[in-house]
Amino acid sequence: MVEPLIVVVAYDGIELVDVASVTSGFDYANRLGASPAYRVMLVTPLGRPVRCDSGLELRGQGRLDVVDGPIDTLIVSGGQGHEAAAANPRLVGQVMRLAGLSRRVASVCTGATVLAAAGLLDNRRATTHWYEAARFAARFPKVNVDPAPIFVRDGEVSTSGGVTAALDLTLSFVEEDHGPEIARRVAMGMVTYLQRPGGQTQLSLFTNLPRSDQAVVRRVIDHVIGNLDGDLGVARLAALAGVSERHLNRLFAEHVGRTPSRLVRDMRMEVASHLLTRTSEPIAAIARRCGFASAETFRQAFVAWAGVPPSQFRAAGR
Prior knowledge:
By secondary structure, this protein is α/β, with parallel strands linked by helices. The chain has helices spanning about 15-30, 80-85, 90-100, 110-115, 135-140, 165-180, 180-190, 205-210, 215-225, 235-240, 245-255, 260-280, 285-290, 295-305, 310-315; strands spanning about 5-10, 40-45, 50, 55-60, 60-65, 70-75, 100-105, 125, 145, 150-155, 155-160.
């Protein structure tokens, strides 16, 4: 039985965790009986050691321009050197060549910059590290960039969010190849969350939203958090705050970086995604808890936010 070849592309300025999350994930699957077992190869532009962001050196097992197919999965890692890698025409050209020999193509974190430079993300939905997402979207307008999910799979091309999201993407590959039980055991062996669904956000609003010093903004946000099932329209929030709708929108743009409506939507969706994957509550009940008048209204809003219906998101999360 032929061992599926996993080719991981590294370059100077690579993030070591990006590489290790992938290679260790597939190695654990092998140890747990994946059949056929994966054969993992780390390749570098010249077959020489590459310097990681941390200063450590990582030795490759082959040269990028010598590797040949068939390849099961091609994975481009990220790191602070991603811009230089994407500007290297030889490296990008070899990634394009190998992509044509691969069943699946993926990037980890900012490795998406290399895939985009190769044209492999044109007209596809993709993600990258949330910190780089705005710059990435501006540089590659043909890519439908979604900065929120931990990973996105669009056909045979996949992209993951920041750093440890690489493990979530790897687990999804293992599950696809060998079933949910081996993937679950790999997750347990690596002491990680049992396969976060790809649509889960890279960052939580509730832990990462800046605590504003502006009293009106702070009061409105506190009200939203405590009343997600209530009327949270801009008119209602402005009335509660004692300001005009226009002034409230201006305050939120200045202190939060998003409109009140966008904040309400994102908070409702984050709570809904948590309830879908962590509870067995009926979808209609989750819709009511998150302030939606009907399950259908909730479904439409959730598809617009996550790209999949609530039922599919729940199934993937489990």
